[in-house]
Amino acid sequence: MTKHSEHLQWIHDRIVNVYGENKDIDFLIRFRIIIADLESLEEAHEEVEAKIVLDNSGSLPEPKYLNKETGKVQRLFCEETLIPVWNVRYEDPYVGNKGEAVYMTVSAKDEKDAKTQALACTEFSQHITPSFYNARYLTAFKAEGNYKIGEVQYFEGDPRL
User: Fewer CB atoms near the end CB (10 Å): N or C, the chain?
Assistant: First the structure.
């Protein structure tokens, strides 16, 4: 299979040799520049493909990066480099219309830090009545699945209860 740059070069040569266009006309000069750019991109692409080696499962190897703090090459997705994501919930069954709940997703080092960040957020804490605040209704757990960090969700209680 020929490369795209080779095919474009063939078109260029055909325009010059078969149709008799002057090779120094503006659009053919630009055409040669495009061909040269494409050739360099194709060469770079071939180099990258040559460096990628599939592991035994047939998938690509995990990407790595240079950690500027340690100066070492590390896995991109590992426990040491990822900051955990927490869902923080304040759910008081006695306040409001038969219970209310507010949830927030934060990235924090631990459960305590997650709770602190959530309470510091005005959008989260505005749904908690200070006079009825009870720390036992504030919980944090590691987020799973899809989430949007910083999103606050508020749910009013069910009046049928």
Answer: N
